[in-house]
Amino acid sequence: MDSFFGSLFDMVENSNKEIDRCPKCKISFGDFQRSGLLGCSYCYEHFSKSLNPTIKRVQGGLTHTGKIPKSASQEVVSKRKIDELKLRLKDLITEEKFEEAAVVRDEIQELRKSLEEGESDAE
C-alpha cells in the first residue's frame, strides 16, 4: 500500500513540475529534466528551488568563482583568496562563530599586508 501512495505522490509531484513553466521562455521543469537544458537565464531563478540542491551538489556551491590560470601572478591568487575569505568571514559572523571569524580576519589582514609589501617592492 505504501508503494502505491509513493507512486501516486511521485506522479502528482512530476505533473506539478510539468505544469510549472518559466514565465519568460515557457519551458517546463519536465522539459529541462528530459533535455538537461534550460530555456533562458531567468529559468535559473524561476526553478531555483528545484535546481539549487543539484547545482550545489555538483559544483560545491552556488557562487561561480571560475578558475585561476596556472600562469596567474601571486597577486591575482592572493586577491582571489581574500575574496573567498571575506565570504567565509561573513558566514562565520552570521553563524556567530566569532573565534573562527577572528582567525579568518587575521588571515585576510596578513594577505593584504603581503600584497601591499609586494606592490611597494615593485615600485
TrEMBL record:
Residues 82-121 form a coiled coil. Residues 79-114 form the UVR domain. Gene3D superfamilies: UVR domain. Keywords: Coiled coil. Signal peptide: none annotated. It holds the Pfam family UVR. One of its GO terms (molecular function) is zinc ion binding. The keyword Cell cycle does not apply. GO terms for biological process: stress response to cadmium ion; stress response to copper ion. This is UvrB/UvrC motif-containing protein. The lineage of its organism: Bacteria, Bacillati, Bacillota, Clostridia, Eubacteriales.
